[in-house]
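Hi support team,

I've been running sequence recovery on a batch of backbones for a student project. Most finish fine, but this one hangs at about 90% for roughly twenty minutes before it completes. I'm not sure whether the input is malformed or the queue is just slow. I've pasted the structure tokens below so you can try to reproduce it. Let me know if you need the job ID as well.

Thanks,
M.K.
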């Protein structure tokens, strides 16, 4: 490897690919150990020089748009490396859902070689595996895969409101939470068509994406505490989307505007 500047990380760079190249570069410079080893207190002169060198090389591999995100760790290579992983490869269910979607959407491009296609698949798979937390076993993977398939099967144009909280979820995805969210979503749509949303349980399945979801083997879902609920419509705590006055008023205004538009069109046609 040439003695030059390492790979540069931008907001559009594939983080798994960059981290592999950056790791190889720092190993070549004989300082990578300080990306995963805490510095002794106090470090000796040789260790201090190596830590500073590692921090400088790592900082130099970050683009101007990425550097501000980890500026507080610019003198600590271990903290900087871990912060980059948290930012670009978070170990949460929402990140894994997006990784699944990326992995399953890969197609052979026109004129692309099989080697290039294999590389893209490998990169997407590495992003998926690196987004799994410690203790993520095969049983959890099986249940999450079922949940991901359920979410992906729901068309975005009809179920974007239902899917959005799960796509940002920090907790494990489960089939049970999606089934409950779907049931409440359908009930809300039916009630809205009939002009009555007062009978819908405000503690809907949409809350499951912002609280700990039950296991798919649970007999009944336990409603989360309202204090832990964040409404995805207005961002305020204590209530859910289906009981959000701001969201319901917005829908109501949209329906009224549609009726007014239809009436105006009819009047123009008559004239």
């Amino acid at each position: 490897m040439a003695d030059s500047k390492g790979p540069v990380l931008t907001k559009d760079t594939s983080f798994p690919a960059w981290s592999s190249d950056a790791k190889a570069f720092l190993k070549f410079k004989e300082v990578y150990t300080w990306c995963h080893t805490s510095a002794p207190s106090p470090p000796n002169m040789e260790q201090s020089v190596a830590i500073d060198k590692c921090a400088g090389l790592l900082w130099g591999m970050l683009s101007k748009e990425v550097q501000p995100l980890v500026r507080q760790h610019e003198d600590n290579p271990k903290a900087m490396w871990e912060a980059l992983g948290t930012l670009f490869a978070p170990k949460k269910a929402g990140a894994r859902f997006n990784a699944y979607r990326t992995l399953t959407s890969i197609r052979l491009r026109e004129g692309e070689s099989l080697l290039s296609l294999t590389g893209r698949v490998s990169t997407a798979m590495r992003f998926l595996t690196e987004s799994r937390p410690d203790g993520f076993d095969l049983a959890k993977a099986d249940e999450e895969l079922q949940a991901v398939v359920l979410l992906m099967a729901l068309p975005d144009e009809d179920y974007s409101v239902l899917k959005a909280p799960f796509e940002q979820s920090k907790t494990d995805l489960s089939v049970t939470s999606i089934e409950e969210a779907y049931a409440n979503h359908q009930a809300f749509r039916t009630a809205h068509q009939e002009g009555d949303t007062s009978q819908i349980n405000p503690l809907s399945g949409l809350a499951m994406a912002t609280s700990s979801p039950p296991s798919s083997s649970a007999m009944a879902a336990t409603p989360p505490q309202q204090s832990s609920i964040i409404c995805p419509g207005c961002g305020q705590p204590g209530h859910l989307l289906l009981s959000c006055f701001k969201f319901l008023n917005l829908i109501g205004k949209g329906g009224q505007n549609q009726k007014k538009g239809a009436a105006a069109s009819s009047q123009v046609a008559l004239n």
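--
Follow-up from support: It reproduced on our side and the slowdown came from queue contention, not your input. The mean pLDDT is 75. No action needed from you.
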